[in-house]
Structures are given as structure tokens and as C-alpha cells.
Design a protein that fits this description.
The chain is about 55% helix and about 0% strand. By secondary structure, the chain is mostly helical. The chain folds into two domains: about 5-65 and about 155-345, no CATH class; about 80-140, no CATH class. Strands 1-2 form a two-stranded antiparallel ribbon. α4 runs parallel beside α8 (about 245-280) and α9 packs antiparallel against α10.
Length: about 350
């Protein structure tokens, strides 16, 4: 691109910031801390913390920590009909129409204890709890006094969630980009240079191949986790699943590209590329550090999800070290996320796709 005669001299008169990689490294640390704090706050939203302070996984959903969907009748809090019938029959056995006790089990009738888990029955000696059942009360399911295990619906629609993610990630990226200019960070240490493998068509092609390979590896890791019974939580992906053409356009055209650019800029270009000269160590050491931080930033996917994401982060860091290209890892990161959404939320394929 050739600058016009008026623009060229104007740019040449702009002051060139003095390179200060140490100052930029401190800014990277601050942005990284902000990322982790935001991820922790997001994890509370995805986990759906209940009134008793326990999350869906801790409240008894450990066998399958994925976000559960209510399948019961309206007003039945998602439990199946058999559980409601058992509660109703237990209440019917406990009392009669005139308030008399069941003669089969005086003083120890199996009623639903208000502090027992959902659907659990236990004996009680409290006669005050054995009261007359109103007409039709036995036909209604007994409501538990503890918080539901199923997650509540999010306060924001998927479209607003997508917009919120894009704006938040964009803010972090803008702060770090401004810091890179202010501290005079050379573009080549950030993986942006004139080499064809850095910003040219070869870099784009390598990124596409790399992204498909990483997506297949991600599916393999998901399959291994599922076969071992340690399936990781995909609640965040389900919360962000778009509705309608506009939603998918926002996801694929704005949110996922923003996530890929910002996260690769922070975790790979900044942490690995710019901090390595300051630390005076091998870039592979920073690749491990960035991968650990990247994994912790995805804590909403559960323990196994953190491990899988950490492995993906190290693979992306390795791709950055080997190619010295930000474009390669941005394209690869975008494809991993886009293919995952399209396969499982768009086409409804099982997770993993071959299961």
C-alpha cells in the first residue's frame, strides 16, 4: 500500500515511542489478572450457584456435570412423574382426611423431611408435621425445601451474552493494543512481520490446517473424558448457543473472531512473544506459563475441561513459537471454536461427533 503525499510526511512526524518491553510485561500481567478474575465471575454464572451455596455439580450432579435441562411437567421442578407419585403416595399414607395417623406406622410415618435431599423420604417423630391434607394436595408434587440441582435460565438472552463477551474481550484487547503502542513493542515480537508465513496467504493456509487438526484433537480428548466418566462441562457453550440467523451471524462474525484475536494476542503474542526477551528465558517456558493461565481462564468447563483447554493452549503456543505468526494461531483458534459450535449446537451432533 502506498501512502498519499499528504499522509506520508504526517506519519513521519509522529513521535516513535521508546521500546519498553519491561513496562509492557507489567501491563500484560495486569491484563492477565483481569482475564482470570472475569473468568472466575463468569464461572459462577455458568455453574448456577444455588441458594445453599452449592453448584449444580456439587449438589449431586457429579456423574455428569453438563448443564441439565428440565424435562418435567410445568410446576414439577423438573423431576419425573414417578418421583412426584412417590411423594404423593407417601403423603397420602401419612395422613387421612380427618387428620388421623396411619395405623401401620404410628409416630414414624415416612414423610418428606424439609431438610432432606430432593425426593428423599425419612421418618419423623414430630406430630405437628402430620396435618390434614387439603383436597387435591396429595395430587400435587411435594416441593423440596433445598435448592434445585438444575441450573436456572440465564438472565440474559444468548444474543446479549454473545454481545457482552465480544465487548468485554474487545476491551481487554484494546487496552493491550494501546499498551503495545505506548511501550513501543516491535511488531515482529508479537508475530506480525512481512514474512509470508507471518501475514501472507501461507500463514492463512497453515492456520486452517492447524485449526482442523486441533479441533479433531479436542474431540478426541472429549471422547476420552466421556469414556472415563469424567465428562467436562459445556454449560458455557450451551449458554452462548445462538438462536436464529442473526445470532449465528453475531457468533461467527463478531464474538468468536474477537475471542480468537484477543486471546491469542494476550496468551501467545504478548506472554510468549513480548515477555520472553524480558524474562531472558526460552519461549517454551513462557509457553507453559501461558498455557496454565489459559487453562485457569476456562474454569467454567470443570476440572477435566481445564486440563483439555490447557493442552489446547500449549498446542497453540507451540504453533506460535514455531511459526512466529499471530495470524496462524488466530485462525486456528477461531476454527476450533467455530467447528465446535457448528457441530454440536448448530447440527446437533453428539459430543464427540463419532459417539
Amino acid at each position: 500500500m502506498t501512502l498519499s503525499p499528504a499522509v506520508g510526511p504526517a506519519l513521519q512526524t509522529l513521535p516513535v515511542p521508546e521500546t519498553d518491553l519491561a513496562g509492557f510485561a507489567w501491563l500484560v500481567a495486569a491484563v492477565l489478572a483481569g482475564f482470570l478474575i472475569l473468568a472466575r465471575l463468569s464461572q459462577g454464572v455458568v455453574d448456577g450457584e444455588g441458594d445453599d451455596g452449592t453448584t449444580g455439580e456439587a449438589a449431586g450432579d457429579g456423574a455428569n456435570p453438563k448443564r441439565s435441562r428440565s424435562t418435567g411437567r410445568p410446576g414439577s421442578d423438573g423431576r419425573d412423574a414417578s418421583a412426584a407419585e412417590r411423594d404423593a403416595s407417601a403423603a397420602d399414607r401419612t395422613t387421612t382426611g380427618d387428620g388421623d395417623h396411619d395405623e401401620d406406622a404410628p409416630g414414624s410415618s415416612p414423610v418428606a423431611h424439609p431438610l432432606a435431599p430432593d425426593g428423599a423420604l425419612g421418618p419423623t417423630e414430630d406430630d405437628d408435621r402430620l396435618r390434614t391434607v387439603d383436597d387435591g394436595a396429595a395430587d400435587r408434587p411435594v416441593e423440596p425445601a433445598v435448592a434445585r440441582n438444575a441450573r436456572e435460565d440465564p438472565a440474559m438472552s444468548p444474543g446479549l451474552l454473545l454481545l457482552n463477551v465480544a465487548l468485554t474481550q474487545g476491551l481487554f484487547g484494546a487496552i493491550l493494543a494501546g499498551g503495545a503502542w505506548y511501550f513501543g513493542v516491535p511488531l515482529d515480537v508479537l508475530g506480525v512481520s512481512g514474512d509470508a508465513l507471518s501475514t501472507g496467504l501461507p500463514a492463512l493456509l497453515v492456520g486452517v490446517v492447524f485449526g482442523v487438526v486441533l479441533w479433531v484433537g479436542n474431540e478426541l480428548a472429549s471422547g476420552l473424558a466421556a469414556s472415563s466418566g469424567a465428562d467436562y462441562d459445556e454449560g458455557l457453550r450451551e449458554l452462548l448457543a445462538p438462536e436464529g440467523v442473526r445470532g449465528w451471524g453475531l457468533l461467527l462474525g463478531a464474538t468468536l473472531p474477537t475471542i480468537a484475536v484477543v486471546e491469542e494476542f494476550v496468551f501467545r503474542a504478548a506472554v510468549v512473544g513480548a515477555v520472553t526477551p524480558v524474562a531472558g528465558t526460552s519461549p517454551w517456558v513462557l509457553a507453559v506459563v501461558s498455557s496454565v493461565a489459559f487453562a485457569l481462564g476456562h474454569g467454567a468447563q470443570g476440572r477435566v475441561g481445564v486440563l483439555v483447554t490447557g493442552g489446547l493452549g500449549f498446542a497453540l503456543a507451540a504453533g506460535f513459537v514455531l511459526t512466529e505468526s499471530l495470524l496462524v494461531v488466530v485462525v486456528a483458534h477461531y476454527l476450533v471454536n467455530a467447528l465446535e459450535f457448528l457441530a454440536h449446537e448448530g447440527f446437533g451432533l453428539p459430543d464427540p461427533v463419532w459417539s
